[in-house]
TrEMBL record:
Membrane-traversing stretches: none
InterPro entries hit by this protein: Endoribo_LPSP/chorism_mut-like (IPR013813), RutC-like_sf (IPR035959)
This protein's name: RidA family protein
Endoribonuclease L-PSP/chorismate mutase-like domain mapped to chain residues: 5-148
Length: 155
C-alpha cells in the first residue's frame, strides 16, 4: 500500500475503482511528468448518489461532499496511469464545475470539498491553483464535476 493510500485509510477512505468513461475519452492521460484527468463525476459504485442543481435540489454541503468524491475518483484515475500515487510531486491545478441554480453563487465553497481532500491526503503536495465554475447542467444531471492536473516525480 502506498503512503498516499495509507493516509486515505487513516482518514477512513479508500481509493475507488476508476470510473469508466461515459463517452469517447480516457479517465486520465499522461504527458511527460504530468497527468491530466478527465472531468470526474461523483460516481459511487457506478451510480450518482444524487442529481440536480446546487442551490435547488442539492444543498451546498451535499455538493461539497460530492466534490470530495470527485477528487477521490480523480486520484484513482491518476493512479491508473501513474502506477503509484506516491509519485505525485504536486497537484498543479483543480478545475471544478458546479451545476448551479440561477441564484447560487457558492461554487468556491462547493469545490473546497475537493481541495480540502487533496490537502488532507497529500499535504503540501496537494496545494494547488483552482477554478470553480457555475454551469447550467452537467452530464447525467450531476451536481459537480472535478478534473485535476498533477505533476509526477521523475522515474
Amino acid at each position: 500500500m502506498s503512503a498516499v493510500e495509507a493516509k486515505l485509510a487513516e482518514l477512513g477512505l479508500s481509493l475507488p475503482e476508476v470510473v469508466p468513461p461515459l463517452a469517447a475519452y480516457q479517465p486520465a492521460v499522461r504527458s511527460g511528468v504530468y497527468v491530466y484527468t478527465a472531468g470526474q463525476l461523483p460516481m459511487v459504485d457506478g451510480k450518482l448518489p444524487v442529481t440536480g442543481k446546487v442551490g435547488a435540489e442539492v444543498t451546498q454541503e451535499e455538493a461539497k461532499d460530492l466534490a470530495r468524491t470527485c477528487a477521490l475518483n480523480a486520484l484513482a484515475a491518476v493512479k491508473s496511469v501513474a502506477g503509484d500515487l506516491d509519485r505525485v510531486a504536486r497537484v498543479v491545478k483543480v478545475v471544478g464545475f458546479v451545476a448551479s441554480a440561477p441564484d447560487f453563487t457558492g461554487q468556491p465553497a462547493v469545490l473546497n470539498g475537493a481541495s480540502e481532500l487533496l490537502g488532507a491526503v497529500l499535504g503540501d503536495k496537494g496545494v494547488h491553483a483552482r477554478s470553480a465554475v457555475g454551469v447550467a447542467v452537467l452530464p447525467l444531471d450531476a451536481p459537480v464535476e472535478v478534473e485535476i492536473q498533477v505533476e509526477l516525480t521523475e522515474g
